[in-house]
């Protein structure tokens, strides 16, 4: 992939959020690499590559790469190629994970390898992006062209849209939380519809993912207290349920990022799958997310 919680959490969150966010944060400059992120000049890889950048209950505001953007190649035609495009916040950008290969690069490479063709991965993820900003991306010629050419588009966004609950005013049972989820449903539905309308590849697919937590998790999350963990996990379940419904209604494919991190009952500790910020996946986490997408595709 968010609630910051009741008054009890407030003091803790004031301390912990200094470097935190997948709550709405100013969009950081996109991290780029051989498969890195960017709204205008995305990272592109052929075959394997690495990527870098950051997402809001999550530490997002500072976790971006400073790598030089890779020039965008022409992506016309599909003969002998499998083109994968990601539209997202910081999660697929390998933020705060130096040397990591982003899960979207791994997905594209695995699918291309199985098809016996060259894999081209375009990571248009941008740290801090909200669903509204992804919609704005879809209004630009470059992103529209890349989506039109894609065999697979993966969408991971929404955590940065959720309201900051640091003052305890917007817990998952509140009207503002329900309103935020409802508004997100509308925007995410529009994103999927626009992607589908643009795609031209035969048998092109759209995958929409949830999150394991829309906030920080593991050891870092526990430092914020049990109320924070309970609230952020509850908000995540509400968010993921909404994404499942959007995917089903739009004939997209849902990728479950939660079960492989925290188990079916939410009791597993994901610390070993997270970067030091407790927010973004580490190398093992990216491998796990790659498995989730490939499994969702039935490959």
TrEMBL record:
Ranges for region Disordered: 28-77
Keywords: Hydrolase, Signal
Claim: Methyltransferase is one of the keywords in the record: no
Keyword Hydrolase: yes
Signal peptide: 1-20
InterPro entries, per database record: Ester_Hydrolysis_Enzymes, SGNH_hydro, SGNH_hydro_sf
Protein name: SGNH/GDSL hydrolase family protein
């Amino acid at each position: 992939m968010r609630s910051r919680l009741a008054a009890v959490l407030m003091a803790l969150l004031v301390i912990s959020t200094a470097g935190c966010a997948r709550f709405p944060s100013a969009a950081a400059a996109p991290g780029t690499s051989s498969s890195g992120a960017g709204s205008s000049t995305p990272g592109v890889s052929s075959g394997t590559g690495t990527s870098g950048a950051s997402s809001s209950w999550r530490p997002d505001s500072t976790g971006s790469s400073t790598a030089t953007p890779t020039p965008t190649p022409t992506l016309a035609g599909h003969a002998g190629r499998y083109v994968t495009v990601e539209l997202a916040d910081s999660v697929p950008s390998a933020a705060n994970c130096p040397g990591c290969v982003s899960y979207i690069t791994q997905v594209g490479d695995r699918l291309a390898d199985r098809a016996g063709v060259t894999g081209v991965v375009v990571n248009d993820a941008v740290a801090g992006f909200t669903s509204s900003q992804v919609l704005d991306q879809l209004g630009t010629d470059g992103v529209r062209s890349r989506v039109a050419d894609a065999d697979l588009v993966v969408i991971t966004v929404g955590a940065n849209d959720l309201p900051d609950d640091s003052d305890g005013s917007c817990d998952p049972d509140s009207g503002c939380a329900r309103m935020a989820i409802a508004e997100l449903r509308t925007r995410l539905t529009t994103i999927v519809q626009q992607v589908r309308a643009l795609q031209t590849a035969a048998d092109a697919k759209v995958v929409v993912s949830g999150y394991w937590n829309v906030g920080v998790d593991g050891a870092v999350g526990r430092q914020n207290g049990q109320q924070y963990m309970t609230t952020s996990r509850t908000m995540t379940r509400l968010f993921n349920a909404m994404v499942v419904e959007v995917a089903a209604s739009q004939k997209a494919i849902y990728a479950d990022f939660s079960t492989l991190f925290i188990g079916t009952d939410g009791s597993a500790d994901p610390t070993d799958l997270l970067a030091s910020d407790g927010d973004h996946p580490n190398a093992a986490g990216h491998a796990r997310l790659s498995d989730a997408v490939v499994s969702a595709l039935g490959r």
